[in-house]
Amino acid sequence: AGNVVCSKEKCPPVQCSKPVIDPHLCCPVCKACVLEGVEYENGSSWQPEGPCSSCTCVNGKTLCTHMQCPPTECLHPSKITGSCCKICDSCTYNQRVYSNGQRFTTPDQPCHICTCLVSV
Questions:
Q1: Which one of 14, 42, 71, 97 has the fewest beta carbons within 10 angstroms of its own beta carbon?
Q2: Would you place residue 30 in the very low, low, confident or very high pLDDT band (cuts 50, 70, 90)?
């Protein structure tokens, strides 16, 4: 009937320790991200599950990606510390494994020198 009714907005509890008061918003907002009880600053990145995952805090929202490793085309792939995917850095010859660049001879042909060359 032409009347205006106003009420005070109830703000939800904030999940971070340093909420930001925006003059254009009623309720305080978190620019930091809280994940499993740990607070991350806006713009920071971390790897919650090791090198195969990456998370970034963007304006209070946690954005995560998981790396999919391509299939390896060798019999004995190895994993380098700190990397996500296994790589082919060895050769298999006569049921023996040789590292990339390793030179070797075979018992039946001692005059033939072989070298393990891993294609990149």
A1: 71
A2: confident
